[in-house]
Amino acid sequence: MDRAGKREAVTALHDVFDKTGVVVVAHYAGLTVADMQKLRHQMRTAGATVKVAKNSLAKIALDGTDVASIGSLLKGPTLLAYSNDPVAAPKVAVAFAKDNDKLVILGGAMGATALDANGVKALATMPSLDELRAKLVGLIQAPATKLAQLANAPAAKLARVFGAYAKQGEAA
Fold first, then answer.
1. Which runs of E-coded beta strand occur in 13-147?
2. Contact of 46 with 88, CB cutoff 8 Å
3. 71, 84, 130, 154: least surrounded by Cβ within 10 Å?
4. Same domain, 99 and 31
5. What is the CATH number of the domain that holds 71?
6. Do 157 and 133 share a structural domain?
7. What is the pLDDT of residues 87-100, one digit of tens each?
8. Do residues 119 and 52 lie in contact, with contact meaning Cβ atoms separated by under 8 Å?
9. Domain check: are 152 and 102 in the same one?
10. What's the pLDDT tens digit per position in 104-156?
11. Is the domain of 56 the same as that of 98?
């Protein structure tokens, strides 16, 4: 790679580190090409991205970003998984590491917060932003639904009482 290519790679990585919600760093030594393709597909499906970058270029790109704390993790054959959703990349990485012991999660960063391997695993157990939004909407809608049921309940009971009297009157 020539200097211009390296400069472009560093700029692209710097933009990623600046704009991403979470970055996970893992060793991938021993993964087959098919395994890497499977991991990339799973990440893409979840809204995350996997990138294998030269460690020296990634360290240069980390300068001046919130996730600069991951610089010490960049040793050996490492891959970077990142997403805007703070849960997507860790969730897929942890699930893939459970099935494939060749992927070893080293740690990561969520904004300025550095995460070790256990921190990434804890983050993976949390619900995603979409799940949290759905729960919040459900909680907001629940009182309105209950209120509507309470408002309609007396009228429904009254209609049943009239219906019962009408049936009694017909039977007599």
1. 22-27, 48-51, 78-83, 104-110, 113-116
2. yes
3. 154
4. yes
5. 3.30.70.1730
6. yes
7. 889 999 999 999 98
8. no
9. no
10. 999 999 888 888 989 889 888 887 777 778 878 877 777 766 666 666 667 66
11. yes
